[in-house]
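Handout, section 3.2

Students often ask what a structure token actually looks like in practice. Rather than define it abstractly, here is a full record for Lysosomal Pro-X carboxypeptidase. The first block is the sequence as you would receive it.
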Amino acid sequence: MALPSFQLWLALLLLAAVCASAMHPRKLTRLGGLKRLTTSKSSSDLPPEYEIHHYRQTLDHFNYKPESYATFQQRYILNYKYWGGANTSSPIFVYTGEEGEVTDDVETFIIALAARFKGLLLYIEHRYYGESMPFGSENQAFQNSSTLGYLSSEQALADYAQVIVHVKKNLSAENCPAIAVGASYGGMLASWFRIKYPHIVIGALASSSPILYFDDITPQDGYDVVVTKDFKETSESCYNTIKQSWSEIDRVAAEPNGLTTLSNLFNTCSPLTTSQELKDYLGFMYEDSAQYDNPPDYPVQNTCRGIDGAPEGTDILGRIVAGLSSLNSSGSCQDILSYELSKPDAWDWQTCTEIVMPMGRGNETMFEAEPFDMEDYTKECVDDFGVVPRLHWITTEFGGHDIKTVLGNFASNIIFSNGLRDPFSIGGVLEDISDSVVAVYTEQGAHCLDIDVPTPDDPDWLVAQRDKEIKIIAAWIAEYYAKLSAK
């Protein structure tokens, strides 16, 4: 369902911190999943077929100290609508929750999979997000580095393992094959879960999961190289206008009352104090537009349509304003500083400890150069949490270097799906690694599109992508049933 232009703009604006910022380098590592284009749901908003459950989850899976025996209530959701039942060994599709409310994840492609294969739907909320809060409340959980120290991808994967085992046992469904499905960070978790817990799930569909955006595997400016490509392919003149606008912003800002001029021109909610604030905001908007340049809205096209469609004689900044107006048709003010006012959150903790993606801007993009600076990144993490990032931990824990050889030797049954207009696809797996660890991608799609709910208006190339994924999953399930009957 298409969002009206104002709703699209609002969704992009409210969650703008998911993408990149030169002033806040950690913000570059936010992935976002489907949250950007969905409205948050409370438990009461869910249709009646979705059952809310809570599991008494272990706080620390990896220690035997006294405090390790503490527990918290982890939320998960079950939907039996399509399930063929335990007696038929019908599959269980497990949505590996990412950085947000699990109730926002229910309307995804996982429903179509359940309908196709008579599957049970199981959605598991990630610890420290939504209602799955250790220590009883967010204030207590986020109190300091000691209470936040139990938030990691490794702990989250162990949570998923325990919940799946618990659900299967309760339903006498031990013979029902489970398949992990996730998007963005959740897609990374789905693929890592299959690698770490192959006895729990028989396969994984990992949508838009940049598991190779760590260490030096992917060029640090890869994200913005793809953003630039998206805009340049859409309109060369639009690309050139954006590229020229940065120096023009600085030129106007240097004039007497220049910041006031810019504040009025861009209709900012608060007066600008530096030109960098405006440039950061515009960078957010362009990157968001590229990351979610999906049908039917195509925000890159909308932005460039506004820029290129400005009246003849409009200057560079006037054209940029016209581009923003194409996303914000309501005429409301531009909340330039909203992302700066938010306090550090759970995802900031994760990017300060292990999800360290060295992302910067180089000279081959439409943005001003802003190389990744590990010293600045570390300083921000120390200031916020008192911790030093573990730059190399993800590749140590889950791999990444020489991925084709490594996963080809010991991994199986993973689909890495991407849309190449998604800037994060640059850090994704885009080539088949083996017969069963495969890459499925489209030239046109952007972030997490294949994992969204199918609609009758979906373009043929998206339908074909999902059909390919279904065919692969069908083969996994058939192979499992063959082995089960042979026992």
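Discussion prompt for tutorial groups: The radius of gyration is 23 Å. How would you have guessed this from the sequence alone?
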